[in-house]
Amino acid sequence: MGLRDKEKRTPAERWALALKGMTPSTRATYQREVNSFLKWAKETPDTLINYYVEIMVDPERNMGLSDNVNDYLSELDEKGYGGGKQIATVKALKRFFKTNGYTLTLETKKRVVGEGVRPAKAEEIKRVLGFGIVNPKASALVALSKDSALRVSDIVNIRFKHIKPIMEDPKLNWLCFKLSVTKTQNKKRKALPCFGPDAVTHLRLWLDERGKLGLPSGDEHHVFVNTRDNAEYEVKGRTRKASIVGSPLKAATAGVLIGNICDRAGFPELSSNSMRKFNTTALTMAGMGQDRILVLQGKHQKSSTDTYIDAQAETMLEVFKQFYDYLSIESDAERELETVKEKQEATNGEVEHMKTQMQALTDQLDYMRQTGGGMGKVSPEEARMDAVSASLKKKYPETDPERLRMQAEVRDAEYEDFIKWKAQRDKAQREAEKK
Fold this sequence. Notes:
Elements: H1 2-8, H2 11-20, H3 24-41, H4 45-56, H5 64-78, H6 84-99, H7 122-129, H8 136-148, H9 152-155, H10 164-168, E1 175-176, E2 179-180, E3 190-191, E4 194-195, H11 197-212, E5 232-235, E6 238-241, H12 251-264, H13 272-286, H14 290-297, H15 306-323, H16 332-371, H17 380-395, H18 412-434
Antiparallel strand pairs: 1-4, 2-3, 5-6
Helix pairs in contact: 3-6, 5-6, 8-11, 8-12, 8-13, 16-17
């Protein structure tokens, strides 16, 4: 009886029962991600399962669902999600199909949370901000993200009470204030975002554009708002309506604006997360303490009262000014920082080369022991090479400097014998491993 009842349930009913058996956090995540995908695909739990059953018996459509999921994940990429939401979506969809008796196989690209987005470069950000004359709102979002490393979900919550100092003083180019931030373990977490001349300049450009619309600018009004009024537009064949003019800008929309202006500048791979990584990387390499960076971004783990945060705002701004040359798109310090990064990459390449040379020296020593030194005897040349190798390993545990490379020269004929011997040894080792 129970089995027949189960067979009579619809996919939606089975999914609802499965959700009840999950932990509260998993249930909320899976339900949210599946519902978001269904809304995007204009499907219901029942129609999605029916579609899956159809493509199972139709070879020409067997990639249709995988393609749709990948399109959806690509849209999430464009909105600035770093990878966690995409991974959760795939897991939720697989669980949804498993609950209904099917195994969903998706050919999706591998996503690693926190590693899918590279830091932007100063010259790239400079070019992106150059399009501020076309879209001042998007350039302001980029500049604020670059200077403060705030998430777009936090930037869109900035109100006029936060930026009052620069509203009252047109010549002021620096700003620091307390802001409640989201997406942290502590829902009441506070950050001390600081803005320098780059961010303030582009923020003023957006405020001028905003002012032309005659929108209110009271203390509690949002700085970033929508500028289209109920205009219908289509996305992938679906008709949608934009928000009302003056309504608060949503984080997803802000992410799309940043992605679009970066794409227009010729850098489609950049997003809001690229700006945040630029900030963290630049300040870290410039020498700012990790604890201060965490406070700036609202990621500090130590318990801090609002009074403490308020008291530190003025001090934090002074510290921020000392390091701003490494964030500014116009400064020589940032370019010097790029040079340091390039030198580090070159050094890493040299290290790998040195490791290869160390292995070559070790192979030659093995060859001399087995062919030139006799039954366990050590020749003077071998002893000298052993001494060199020991010295290298003591001074450079992981590398062999180029200046000491191949100190024991082998005559051409001997080198050919060495190559033959090495090939035989490697072959013997492979055969031994197979056994």
